[in-house]
Amino acid sequence: MDGRDERRWREKLPGETVRIAKSAWVWNDGRSCSHRTVFTQERPRDREPSPGRDICWGKERIIYERGFGGEERVKWEDRSGRERQDWSEERLPWEDTTGGEERPRGVERPHDQERFPKEKAGAERQAGAEEKAGRQKGFKEKECDEQGGRVAQDPGRGTSQDQGLGQERRRSEDPIYSKTWRLSPGQGRGPESRQSEDPNYYNTTRGPRQDQGRGPERRQSEDSNYDNIRGLNQDQGRRQERRQSEDLLYRNTSNLSQNQGRGQERKWSEDLNSKKSQSLGQGKGPSEYGGVGEDSPKDEKTGSGFLSRAAAKRKGRGEEQCSSYVVSWPAMSPVSPVWPRKPNLWAFWVLRLVLLLSLKTWAEDFLERCTWLVVLNKFEKVGLHLSKDRFHDQEPIDTVSKVFQKLTDSPIDPGEKYYSFPYYLQINFSCPGQNSELLARKGHLMGMKPLVLINYIHSVNFYQWKMENLQILMEAAPMRSAGYCPAEAVCVLNWYTPMPLKNGSVVASVDIYTNGIGPFIPKKRFYVNMNGFLKRDASGKVVFSIGYESLVLESSYFRSSGSRPLWYTVNHAPVFILGGFNNEKAILLSDSSFQDFVFLELSIDSCWVGSFYCPILGFSATIHDAIATESTLFIRQNQLVYYFTGTYSTLFDKSHGSSSWVRVLPSECIKKLCPVFVPGNGSEYVLALTTGKNEGYIHIGTITDGLVSFKMVPEGWSVCQKLPGKNCTIDWAAYIADERNLLLLVKIDTGQFYLVNFNTEFKTLKILYEIPRFIPEAQQLDFLVLLGTETYTTTPMIPKGLFFNTLNNMLYIWGNFILQSYNREHFIFLADFPKESTIKYMVNSYTGHMAVVTENEEVWYFLEGGYDVYKLIPSQGWTTYLNLQKMQKSSEYADAESLVSLFYEDGKFYELVYLFDVGQERLVKRVLPVATVMEYEMPKPFSVINQGQLRLISFTHVCPFKDVHVVDVPKRQHMTRKESYLALPPLVSEPLGLHNNETLAVYQGLVYYLLWLHAKYDKPYADPVHDPTWRWWQHKMKYRDYFFYLFSNRLAAEGMYIDMNSYQKIYNITGDYDLPEFIFLDKGNGFGFTAILLSHEDTFTSSDSQGATIDVEKKLAVALMLADPECLSGIVTQELLLNRNTVINKIKITDRERCSEQGRVGHNIKKTSVMIKVLGSPGRCSRATYLGAEMLGFRLIPVYIGCPPGKRLAFDVSYTITHSEQINKHYFDCVTKEEEMPCFLFRDLFQPFFLVQDMVTGDSGSFLGSYVLKVVGGGRTKDTIRDYTEEEIFRYNSPLDTTNSLIWKTNVERTTEDKKFYIMSHLSPGIEWLCLENFPCYDITPESIFPPEFFLKLLVSNRGVDNSTYCDYQLTFILHIHGLPLSSKRSFHIVIVSSTFFLILVVIYILFCLLWPHIAQAWVSLRWRIKNIMASESYYTYATSTEGFSIQSHSSEGSLKGPSRAGSKEDNVQAKKA
User: Fold this and answer.
1) What is the pLDDT of residues 110-121, one digit of tens each?
2) What is the crossing angle of helices 876-887 and 930-937, to 10°?
3) How many CB atoms sit inside 10 A of residue 633's CB?
4) Rounded to whole angstroms, how far apart are CA atoms 184 and 1456?
5) Beta-strand pair 1371-1378/1239-1241
6) What value does the CA radius of gyration of the chain take, rounded to a whole number of Å?
7) How much is the pTM?
8) Residue 506 and residue 52 in contact, taking contact as beta carbons nearer than 8 Å
9) Which of 141, 1193, 1347, 1409 is the most exposed place for a label (fewest CB within 10 A)?
């Protein structure tokens, strides 16, 4: 076998799916046929993974099927969703290719002869050359005389396609595989093996081996049945001698002789028991799996009838499929169209069939046993094996900053602040009868990694919290638990993931499954909900705030108490409560959907005293009615109503929480509390029915953000005043929140019951239906339409309650009967329910399945929209199922048990049962398998037919079809509008791959930062890259190889590596090809899929097309039921494939654009549904899976019409700036620039552009619709921005303004209908800024040398002006304007002042120029005079001081002469001389 054939034999499928060939025989064309084990995700059995990297988030499963060698799937399996043109030209993948009439091998089809003559000739030449070369090398082929064919076993080359980049791919261990097919993995590099002589080769279990490439030795798992099957030895290495293991039955069974090295001769021994094998294989008719009997059609040339029709077809295409365990020509033998003998392997096929059947039964039993275990751990308690905490803390904690500061060489930003969540999820699994610690260690060493998918349920109040469906996929990190472990390197091993919190959500589902390696464990869902009814006592211990926890659950609580309904807000209640314990002021409480629970004694007062208007009906401490909402619990004790609001900081302020039970309606006598299962208008509701003085009134309780308020309706008048008679009583009420309609079941004093509708918005009351007094006579009919002309029995009709399903508009009136209505006016009587039984309560799944519980604890089941009612408990089917469970010693069943409650969860029917086992009394939650019970209960009609002298039993098919497949389904992620994130733990350099507290702390911080980026991304400005994580790794992605180099060389800080691609948002999830659980539709959108029904052989009874068509329409008719035909349109296109007994139904659902108004996400959502049903299939069709039987032929899909979550409008800053440069020929930014808020010049034309970004699919495109732009706020700085009033908004934006207050204008002529505002689009000419006199940006005084700036708060909305979508894209963003001009007055004033000042300066200059010479002369003269004065004073001072010394020499005359005057002529002469 050459390398190409080897690649076909051991191939690696797309989507990380590995085919492991257990045994391989090569056909004469060189292609291999084998059995394979496929480890893959949950998907239809007939579909292969699509090309590319698929991220599969479905359930894990193991498929055992026949291998196809290297052939490709037919085009029908293409997942591209393209329209199929001709279904009849292709073989459907689920069709049986082993049975049926066979085509002779010698007859080739025309297309086979046209396509492959050259290929066959080439194959002959190549095979001949290979044979010649093999003979030259010493290979000897020994022909089997009895079989008449040549056999070649795959040599198991080491260099297979499973090994990437030269690294060996490890194969996962399979417990089933180890007990059936014994593998012998080789260690050498592809050594060839020889087949030893085997006298019983075809009578024993064949055990091929698998060779591994270069790598360590792989040990075989221990198997108690090892001695009973063929044992293969392990290869010790290249050219090393292989020893055979000791086996007590070695001489009685066949062993495969191992090769000593490459190139050794391969031999086959003679089969001593060949004739015996052939004699056992003879029989009449074709055998299973492609076997042949005497009457099988034979090849005219070869006489062989071994190949089936499908095999011959594939062989003609050159893609031979191994439909049986066959012996054929070796790979080196030339292709020959003639086989010398016909191989008969009947004995082998009988043994193989027995083995496979036993294997299937054992596998199913094994797969159902192992289960996941999940508990919640505090951050500081991680690593403690038996630690378990309650979900009390709801705030992030700062405990990981120090760890992140140590990560110097990593892609994280050291300047960022990293927080963590307060809890971890501790994950493990257990299998009954096996050591859990050993299983955990084994699974980790094999490479098993639990995957955790957390889905967050959005809040009821979409006004406070935006509706979004968020999910995050994480990989659990293994960690050695703390404690002393002397014997093993890894003692107690658990896996951990962070438990993230999300604002606006208190309910989270956790799905856990494996990566497909190691032991197979079915996917399991847990609910990890916040519990706001906890508090810390003085010692810091977490205790319940609503009561006291009882550590002992006594059996007496359940012996005398019957079952009670579980009432809660569907999909939004984090806590479930159950009352109804006789004379006990206690309830059962669970925050995990009763995976675990507590028994609480409530701390309420029971001081109730009756009065003349509230008579004492009977005092008891029993909690009669208990209702749980998203944040509040309601209970009724006697005629008093209490509520308790939990502390949920992720929903509302902590001050809204209650510190104790609050008594409400203290002056009213409440006889009953009625739940409202579906919220509406952003609130939840509870109905309280009164008695006594306010009989005929009803109190509607509204819960919004934890605040409870009650209102009595009708106002001013009673319901009894509008009905015949004097008095009345309201026995039941149902509230339709979206319609604001209140449905009332009213009984008047004459005993007559009425169905009444009261509208709380318009205050109108209408009698919808007058309920008959007696049960009608059905006359052995399944149902009866009540028209008023039917006959009635003498049994009175006693109505007990109402139930309304908002999704399909189905209304039920129940009591000792069931009435069903589509329009609340015309009713259908379901005759299968007996009038002797009285219904106690009704349970709905909101997926089309319903159940009722009677007063004597009978359980009945029916499908909505159908007419058949089935009794589940007690029934013969239930007895059979119960006995089987007891025989298997199931821990969920006992001889004595008491039903506590029934409820639906994720489409599954659960019952809460108390088991009275002696010494092991307990409360368990178990699945009630409706499909299995109905299958056991279903009659098995048969008839006896005569065939010659034999009488044969022929069973009649109860189900109208053989199987059903759904293809071409829309993508679940896109239709359910779920935003998905991926977060994997950092890689660690620890040899065993175990994490520690620091690496888990880093994991916490990274997950927190990832979700923080998700919340931060909801901003008005669009990033250049439409992804929340883009800015996280924007500048670090180019250093990715450097970080990995450090880690691979053990140089990374703290020994961990953070892969930046492991923290991202995922926009295209593949791997789950089932119909979406619910669908969101925007305006005019739709979805479609194809339902393929495989019929039984007797469905097409007529040979002509007309007769066959008529019969198919009767037996395989598909009904499409629309809950609101005025809102949705449905088209079903049927196509018949007569030659394949197949009916193809193409279904298309489209929105009619009539039933929803434009609004924001979550607002004005129309709730409706589509029901697809195969007529005659409900209750009769089921399919067996490894998780149990499931119902077929019926599906209800909820449809929500309106603005889908995940869409938003963003300001396209980049394109707006680019366009501004084009139209204005320039762009000037502010002096101080901001990264996300650019500036725009006031005098430039401003034309904004916007993007519609899809947060689910990742699409981002220009918004091409119309919109209204308004300035709704502003300020000189960002801190001083204020919101304008409605009057100011009108004056600042409306073209009708006459107060001279406009901020902007445009040349657009289109306005709203009231002419108040402009309607703009991407084609608008743009905006010209004005800032008129009465607008705040008018006349701003500059505070510096730079021109003034202003911040505008703009609102963009397409509501009422864009008809392309239901979404009201309300976008509010800040626009920075700079270069604002001054006002005209201030500008004129500045000009005048400046001009005056300039003129003054000019005049001063002129005067200065004219007077400057005179001034200079005067100045010189002045200085001269001053100097003269100073000189004269100095002279005379000197003369006076020397006169006394010269008196004797002067004459008396001279001495008597006085001094001259200063400035005299003499002085001047003297001065000149001097």
Assistant:
1) 333 333 333 434
2) 110
3) 26
4) 156
5) parallel
6) 44
7) 0.74
8) no
9) 1409
